[in-house]
Design brief:
The protein is an alpha+beta fold. It contains three helices and five strands. The longest helix is centred in the first third of the chain and has 11 residues.
Length: 131
């Protein structure tokens, strides 16, 4: 969700309150792929397992910046590499990772942490190839 002023809504970085079994927010580790940014994004788009709209966007974050920015408020936050194995119609995704150690998604702390993570965004990319 990107607000009208172009700012990413921090709610995207919270656990979903209606999914009590959820333990993390899915992200992808771009550097798993070739160092060329266009190739990295192409691979993430190809392997991504959720449906995205043509207007969808991916936010790019720097892990070190997120840790530094959030650590003062939440020591439990971790970003862990969690590759996904191939299953049925999906290929293996070596780039999958998760942001874990987040507070419950409907808490005031979760809203604050989500906003802090959103402030760390360094780029926004189309979720679908524009070619």
């Amino acid at each position: 969700m990107i607000d009208e002023d172009g700012v990413v809504n921090g709610a995207e970085f919270r656990l979903r309150p209606h999914r009590p079994d959820e333990v993390g927010v899915s992200v992808n580790w771009l550097e798993v792929f070739d160092p060329d940014k266009a190739h990295q994004l192409s691979e993430v788009r190809r392997l991504y397992r959720l449906a995205v709209k043509k207007s969808g966007r991916f936010a790019e974050l720097n892990v070190g910046t997120v840790h530094e920015r959030v650590a003062e408020e939440l020591e439990s936050l971790r970003i862990v590499h969690e590759p996904q194995e191939a299953e049925e119609r999906f290929e293996e995704d070596p780039s999958h990772a998760e942001i874990i150690g987040l507070p419950p998604g409907d808490s005031d702390q979760a809203m604050m942490i989500g906003d802090l993570i959103a402030e760390c965004i360094i780029a926004i990319h189309p979720a679908k190839d524009e070619t």
